[in-house]
Design goal:
With about 280 residues, the chain is mainly β. It contains two helices and 16 strands. It has one domain. It has an eight-stranded mixed barrel with strand order 2-3-6-5-4-7-8-16. A hairpin with a 5-residue loop joins strand 9 and strand 10. The radius of gyration is 21 Å and the shape is globular.
């Protein structure tokens, strides 16, 4: 099976990091603040309904914040929003605020392939999005080996396997979290070349050591969300001298003003999550 591209989500663009790096070495005594362009703040909706296998999926969380300038040390949280999700049967699931910017539902009912619609009223904006809940193929087994990295150094490699269904097109997003990672690392794949076969996904990191716990969250996702995430991940890992795609829009629509759209994507995913103890 192919080695699937690994992505790391970064908060700052590589281009800006490169500029700051050069400024550091050309002017070690002076502090330089770049005069960066600013834009009107946008709402940011982190709305992942994730149904982990082995749970009833009843507790779900949606987070709402706003964009801020590069030099702002905090992320503005949005309070006082009205948040609900309705399924195609007309059932309504209300998300209540538990802290600034955090909205929780404790009686959500996940159903594979059912359509759900998100409604948000926040800061005078009316936002909606629609998506179906996508199933995930369970992880069958996990193996561990020692392999050389690109520099020839031996590193630990963890491989997990799952059987892809033959009767449908499938798209997968996996994230890895551990104590040696500052941010989650992501991998995306689909079954275009492997439909109906066993798929293996490999993960290695130079800092992964015996005794670490590697949390693997393997999601089944829609084709549209897969394509959206590919754009996001390609942009965050692009060459610093290339122009990343701008205005990457999700599926969340402002019903009053289409140009004043929110950032983020309303997605519903079944997931298999495994905490693997590195040997």
């Amino acid at each position: 099976m192919k080695k699937i591209k690994k992505y790391t989500i970064m908060n700052k663009t590589l281009t800006l990091m490169s500029l700051l790096f050069m400024l550091f070495f050309t002017s070690c005594e002076d502090v330089v603040n770049l005069d960066l362009d600013t834009a009107d703040p946008r709402l940011v909706i982190d709305a992942e309904i994730i149904w982990k296998k082995g749970t009833d999926g009843s507790q779900q969380t949606i987070k709402i914040s706003k964009t801020a300038s590069y030099y702002n040390g905090t992320t503005p949280k949005v309070s006082g929003a009205i948040v609900r999700v309705e399924n195609s049967n007309g059932d309504v699931f209300t998300f209540n605020q538990t802290e600034a910017g955090v909205y929780v539902c404790t009686n959500f009912v996940p159903v594979i392939n059912m359509e759900y619609k998100l409604f948000i009223q926040a800061e005078g904006k009316s936002l909606v999005a629609t998506e179906k809940l996508t199933s995930a193929t369970p992880i069958d087994k996990i193996e561990q080996n020692i392999v050389p990295d690109f520099g020839g150094k031996d590193v630990i490699e963890v491989t997990f396997y799952y059987k892809d269904p033959i009767d449908q097109a499938n798209y997968y997003i996996t994230d890895y979290q551990s104590e040696f990672l500052i941010y989650p690392e992501y991998e995306i794949t689909n079954d275009e070349l492997y439909n109906g076969n066993e798929i293996s996904t490999r993960y290695s990191h130079e800092d992964m050591k015996t005794g670490n716990t590697l949390k693997i969250t393997h999601r089944g996702v829609s084709k549209n969300f897969f394509n959206y995430m590919k754009l996001i991940l390609d942009a965050s890992n692009s060459n610093p001298f290339t122009v990343p795609p701008g205005n990457i829009r999700g599926n969340i629509v402002n019903t009053n003003n289409a140009d004043d759209y929110a950032l983020g994507y309303f997605r519903l995913c079944e997931a298999d999550q495994v905490d693997y103890l590195v040997k």
